[in-house]
Structures are given as C-alpha cells and as structure tokens.
Amino acid sequence: MQKSTIFKALFLSTALGAVPALAQVPPTTVTPGPGEAGDPSHKVTKSTIYTSPDPSTPQPPGINPAHLPNIDEIPASEIPDMVPQQSANPKPEDWPAYGRDDRQNRYSPLKQITAENAKHLKRAFVYHTGSLVPKGKTNKWAAETTPIKVGDSLYLCSALNDIMRVDAATGKEIWRHKAGVKYESIPYTAACKGVTYFTSSTVPEGQPCHNRIIEATLDMRLIAVDAETGKLCSSFGFGGQVNLMQGLGYAVPGQVSMTTPPPIINGVVVVNHEVLDGQRRWAPSGVIRGYDAETGKFVWAWDVNNPTDHHQPGPGKFYSRGTPNSWAAMAGDNELGLVFVPTGNSAADYYSALRTPEENKVSSALVAIDVKTGEPRWVFQTTHKDVWDYDIGSQATLFDYHGKDGSVTPAIIMPTKRGQTYILDRRTGEPLPDFPVVEKPAPHPGNVADDPRSPTQPWSVAVPRLGFKDLTEAKMWGVSPLDQLACRIKFRKANYVGEFTPPSLDRPWIEYPGYNGGSDWGSISYDPNTGIMLANWNNTPMYDQLVTRKKADQLGLIPVDSPQFNPSGGGAEGNGAQGDTPYGIVVSPFWNDFTKVLCNQPPFGMITAIDLKEHKVLWQKPLGTARANGPFGLPTGLPLNIGTPNNGGPIQTAGGVAFVAAATDNQIRAIDMKTGKVVWSDVLPGGGQATPITYSVNGRQYVAIFAGGHHFMGSPISDALVVYALPEGTK
C-alpha cells in the first residue's frame, strides 16, 4: 500500500467516533423528505397536539426548589465600594478566577514547567467529586469544570453544583457544600464550569463570609458560602440563596439553567442563563441581571424588549419572552464599569421572522452593559439575523493593545463559532484600526419567503481565520470509495452556497462551519508579553432542514414544557419543535449515516497559535488522536494526531508551554509554544472536556484538569480532578 493511501486510511479510521456530540440529541439519520413546502399547513404556527402555556401559569414543582421568597431591590448608589479582589492582580502562584484574572486571558506567569522538562510530569493526586450518573438514569453528564486556586486551596464545583474546597498540594477535601440540585433540573447537560471568589467590603476580615464563594446553579439559584467553612452566608439573599426564576414566568425544570461562574464588577454580581434551544418562540426571557454581591439584592435588569425598564417585573408581569439569552462565561472591566455579555439568538434559532428589531440588534453579539444601571453602552454583532445557531459561546478576553505608533488601547478579543475573531476597543465596541471588520455580501433574501436574510455579514479581515475554505463536492470524504460517493450524493441533495447558506424547507442545507465549529465555550488564551493568542477549534459541518408544523408533529418534535413532550423526539441544540413558529427543525451532523464519519475531510479539530502583533499564524496543528475514535464509534487505538472534535480551552505559561485537553481522545497535552510540538501527554480517567489551570504551592508548580467526560462528545464520564507536577528536584 502506498504511503499516501496508508495515511488516508488512518485519517479515515479516526473519523469521529464521537460525532453524536455534534447534534447533542439522538441524531436524525434520515432526512424528512422534500420538506413538504407545498403543504398549506406550513403557515400554521399552532400545533395540533400542544398549546403554548401562558407565562402566568403557575410554575410546576421543581422550580424554585428551595422555596425562596422574592428578593428586594437595592439602588446601585447603596452598593459599597468594592475592595480589591484576588482576581484583580493575582499572586503568581494563584488562579483565582475562571480565566485566571479579571482579564480572563488564561495565562500564568509560572515557569517552573518548561517545554524541556514537561516530559517528566507525573500525577500528584486525583480528587473525586463523587458526582456520577445515577443508576438507571440517562447520561447527561459533562462537568466542564475549571477550578480556581486561592492561597493553599482549590475551589471547584461538581456537575450538580456541590461546592468543594480541596488542599491544593494534597487533594484532601477540606469542606463540601451540598447544593441539593436534583436530576430533574438538568437541562441537556449536568455542568458547572466554575465558581467565583469574592472578598466582602462590609464583613470584617476574620469574620464568616468576609471571603466567599459564589455559584450559579442548574436550578436557577445564586448561592454564597463562606470560603473558610463552606457554610451558607446568612446575610446574602435568604439564608445564603437567591431565587433567579423571579420574573421569568412559566418554565419547567431544566428549561432555564446556569452553568458559568458569574463575574463580579464593582460589587455587582452579573448573572445570565441558558434557555433550552429549539423549544418555542415564546420561551422564558434571556434577561441579564445584576445583584449586590454583599446582600444578594436585585440591582438592575437588561430586558431586550423593555430597554428602558431596569426594574423587576411587578405582580402578574414578566420579563419579555423569547429574547436572546446568554449562556457563555462573561467578563468585566472594573475601571470602565462594564460587563461584556456574549449573546445568543432569540428563541427558535432557525427562524427569525417573529423577532423584534430590538432583538435583531443584539443577537449573536457582544454587548457591553453598565454594571450600575443595566444600560447597554455598546453592541458589536458577529452575525446578522442569525438563523444558524452561531450564538457566542466563548468568554471575551481583555488586553491592552500596543500599536506600532506607540499608542495603547484597552481592547477585547471575541472569538466565535464562525472562526472569526474580533478585536475591539472595549470602551466603544469599535474594531481597532489594525483589525478592521468588513461587511461582505451574503446570500439573500433566502429560501423562506417570510424570513429574508441579511444582505451582508461581518468579517474580521486582519486576524487569521480559525477555519478552512468552503466545502466542495470534490472534498467529500469516506472510509471507502462507496462511502465517499454517498457523501457526494448527500452534498448534491443539499442546498449549499457557502458559509451563510440560508435555511430551506424544500431540502436540507449544509451549515458550515456549523454551530459546534470555530471557538466555543473553551474560548482562547492570550499571552500579554508575546501577543500570542492560542485557540483550539472545531471543523464540524451540520446537515439541517426546516419542516412544516404538521411534519414536526409527525416527527414528535414537541417543546419540553408541553405535557406531551417526548425526550426521544429531540431537545436542545438538535431537532426542535420551534413551537409558536411555522417550522420545526431537523438537525444532524453532515456525516455518512452508516459509518458515522463526517463527510468533510479531516482534521475535525485544530489548535492554532496566532501572533496578533504581526497578524499571522505561528503554527497550526491537528488536535486529538485516533486512539479513542473511529468509524461506527469504535476506538482504533492509533496514536496519530489527526484532529478530533474538542470542547474546553487552552492555557499558556511563562515557561513557554501550553496545556490543553478538550479532544475526544481523553488526553491532556503540554505543547511547546515555539513550535506547536506536543512534548508530553497523559491519558485521563475520563474525557478532558474542560480547561486546565496551573498554580504553585511552596514553590512547586502544578497543572490541574477536570476529566469529567462529556455525554455529547461521547467521551467517558468521570468525577476526577487530575493534578500533575514535576518530581521533586526536577530541573
């Protein structure tokens, strides 16, 4: 066999045993036919088998499980000045925030571990949270946890929001707060990405809750516990808790949830939440809210369709339904008094005709909100009239941009699923002159008569794209020539005219790079000394089709809040009812239905280092090996680094080495930042779909990764936090 043929076969053998992650529901392998575009029922918005609940309908059991009363409001003027926080200027040995510091750059000044000695890394300890899939229950586990480290302790959360304090050198558990989140409150993922460390301005040092851990939960509570003991802070909310379902109206458990650590800017805890995709147009609101970090009292709301009312709704009233929600980790700037909110779409991702002008302005955008008033100061949109689910999943990164003319601009990096990375002035939201954004023509008006597309879309033209060129029939892939032919036929059957191919009802359309493409919730890392941005990203197209309301009913696409809901009929991120609209949606990976191998050429996952000063790629490599992946979902055991889907982010260190897990081969890697060469790796006890951290204790540097696995990614579930260090005396 020729060398090229061998490599082709090896590439193919890796091709995405974990692809079910892409649809994030049991994937549809059969397209729904011609879409029934001529069926007169395609204009019907009301299903024959369910009705949309009124928002005033009493919330069912499981909502507000702690039976918390409504919280009062407090004027922003009464919030005390915030004392300097651990995350403002961290000690070199600490990692006190989700992205290490307030800038969320995922960069550590530690340099004991280098590209030369990383090969000697060994496990120092493994800590188990105890949170695993209950016997007899459907696997929804994907912990996605990034610990924080302050002083001698790690603070982290389990997949169901228990909070733990662990000795950072030994892994011994110091305390545990049991949050009491029930299985029924899990949305489509049992995940807790992290917690927030806060130092009080009003509680004296040495008193309970001077330092506290604040967490947002899957069942929509804001919890504050004492960092020293893990006991609830009695002065916060009601016995340490706040009910965040207040004002949202009717929802069922799991329909609204929180998975990211809330940032605290100038004493205000800013909370966002995810709303299950694909359910209905009039889903619960995506409102963004601010609460006093000292007392838990409400300060303001940003409700997109009620832009001038920043108060809580009165009796019998609710935040506006169906508005864009934000589920990604947020970042803030204390000096500017801004929180940077990455937004998603209005409810019903793939149909935009019912959205208001206010919603269209702020969907799939980065919105800067004043943390004392709730008023947006600026909006930068990354996709206009988004019907591709290109919501922003990444956290923004703050940095100071040094221009060649000597100027210094407070800037912000915003990665996206499109693989477009936008560099903006964080004071104004305008693209920096060195990083222009160009509006390029896009296909319009579209294929759905009552839902025209935007004539242009924004492209960041000075940052190398995290992605490849448009698909072509010649680039279709397969395990054998017959499989390649099947993919070519599938390609021909679909509508495809490039990245912004409009949704269609008559036949499927190809969505590429896909809603799991580019950068997602792992975001990027940035070294402020070198100006190098490091990003791991996905290359995973989707195969979508709108269906009539009648067809959606036949397929069992019913919203989760309906009594007739059938979990096997679709949920979030994949097939969806899109209730209250004329169309349901059918979504599957663009793959061979038999082998479950993607139809586009590998690699399916990459990692790229970009010099933002010079606007060029330093190196780019496939991320992920074939060892745990293969056709039909079978692992091949092959060590070739060919690129697999990945979720979770990278970190960089002053030692010239980066660390990343994320890929579906269940490994963590150390990478030489100069060359992109993997200098060390280890197989984890579960999937590494999380972002690592590094810290030191008594002069010894550690690297920690939560190997929780990911049910969507098909990687094994675990409850293990795995921590590494160099053997004592290593140089």
TrEMBL record:
Pfam (any one): PQQ
Pyrrolo-quinoline quinone repeat domain location: 95-703
Gene Ontology MF term list: quinone binding; quinoprotein glucose dehydrogenase activity
Residues spanning the signal sequence: 1-23
GO cellular component terms, A-Z: membrane
Location of region: Disordered: 27-104
Basic and acidic residues composition bias: residue spans: 91-104
UniProt superkingdom: Bacteria
Keyword list, A-Z: Oxidoreductase, Signal
Keyword Kinase attached: no
UniProt cross-references to Gene3D superfamilies, sorted A to Z: Quinoprotein alcohol dehydrogenase-like superfamily (2.140.10.10)
Cofactor: pyrroloquinoline quinone
The keyword S-adenosyl-L-methionine is assigned to this record: no
Family recorded in the similarity comment: Belongs to the bacterial PQQ dehydrogenase family.
Protein name as annotated: PQQ-binding-like beta-propeller repeat protein
